[in-house]
């Protein structure tokens, strides 16, 4: 069993999947708000744009 979270951009998809799989009341309001600020919301698909994925950096 791997208990280490990813340490690259795939972490955000991991977090989105976790939020989607848990009951809404599993997250406290502060954490839910921080995740919502980056587009991770229960019931919504997480669709990061190129900027969020880190593509096209100079």
SSE arrangement:
Blueprint: H1 10-21, H2 29-37, H3 50-53
Shape: globular
Order of helices and strands: HHH
Structural category: mainly alpha
Q: Which ranges are low-confidence, i.e. pLDDT below 50, for 5 or more consecutive residues?
A: none
Number of helices: 3
Q: Give the N-to-C terminal Cα separation.
A: 37 Å
Fraction in helix: 40-55%
Number of strands: 0
Structure description:
By secondary structure, the protein is mainly alpha-helical. Helix content is 43%, strand content 0%.
What would the keywords be for this entry?
58 residues
In short:
It is built from 3 helices and no strands. By secondary structure, it is mainly α.
């Amino acid at each position: 069993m791997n208990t280490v979270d990813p340490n690259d951009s795939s972490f955000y998809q991991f977090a989105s999947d976790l939020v989607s799989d848990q009951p809404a009341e599993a997250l406290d309001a502060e954490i839910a708000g921080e995740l919502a600020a980056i587009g991770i919301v229960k019931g919504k698909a997480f669709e990061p744009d190129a900027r969020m994925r880190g593509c096209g950096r100079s």
